[in-house]
Design brief:
Helix content is 21%, strand content 32%. The chain has five helices and twelve strands. It is an enzyme of class 5 (isomerase).
Length: 232
């Protein structure tokens, strides 16, 4: 059963598990289960329309409209940046305390698109894990707020500043991912959409939807001695 964070007669939001596709995708033709069909079945067969997207490996708040007219309203608000998305990510190394990454990205059609991400560092940690002939490894927890919504934007942006998201494949650090797979059996990606802030498409009331981190994110936080109580 999907965890429903909010539901009324116009919209519904879930805490999407990591590994679940939003809908059928050419890039993941092996998948047989999708958030759209699972949610539709869970609420009695009513059609649901995803307002935005989350990568397969990204967990967290995912919003659906229950009618096409509501979908259009919310699509317009996303397009005009009236919706704020906040993500938690665990990065390799100690990132700057805060930074706005303004770095254009190229989509699958070869079109260059402007992409902007603001983030601030929440915590830093260092553990005894040998890497690159050093006895320890450094990591940090950040909150990222993308101003644009390009495909794999956060993964690409953090790799661009040499602080890739732990577990990201591609757009990550293959050596670190292998190290964590061998030492901690990590197969997931440490990226979670923990908060969505927007005005209701009909009542215009502000909604703040929060999604708790999943067990894998929490487990990695324990390994790294991060304090994730606020998000669990």
């Amino acid at each position: 059963m999907l965890e429903i964070l909010y539901q009324d007669e116009y919209i519904i939001a879930i805490n999407k598990p990591s590994g679940l596709l939003v809908h059928k995708s050419f890039y993941a033709r092996d998948a047989k289960v999708y958030a759209i069909q699972e949610l539709r079945n869970q609420i009695g067969g009513q059609h649901v329309y995803p307002v935005h997207r989350l990568d397969r490996k990204t967990s967290g708040v995912l919003l659906f409209a229950l009618y096409k007219e509501v979908l259009k309203i919310m699509n317009d608000r996303f397009a005009t940046r009236e919706v704020e998305k906040k993500y938690l990510a665990i990065l390799r190394g100690w990132s700057p305390e805060e930074l706005t990454i303004d770095y254009d990205l190229t989509n699958d059609d070869g079109i260059i698109q402007n992409a902007i991400t603001y983030f601030h560092r929440l915590q830093t940690t260092e553990i005894e894990l040998e890497f690159n002939n050093k006895p320890t490894s450094r990591y940090c927890l950040v909150e990222a707020i993308p101003e644009t919504g390009r495909m794999h934007q956060l993964r690409k942006h953090f790799k661009h500043i040499f602080h890739p998201i732990l577990g990201s494949r591609p757009h990550g650090c293959n050596k670190q991912n292998k190290l964590w797979l061998e030492n901690f059996e990590l197969k997931g990606m440490m990226l979670h959409a923990h908060q969505l802030i927007f005005n209701h498409p009909i009542t215009n009331e502000q909604l703040i939807l929060n999604a708790k981190i999943n067990k894998e994110f929490s487990r990695v936080g324990t390994v790294l001695n991060l304090d994730l109580n606020t998000y669990e």
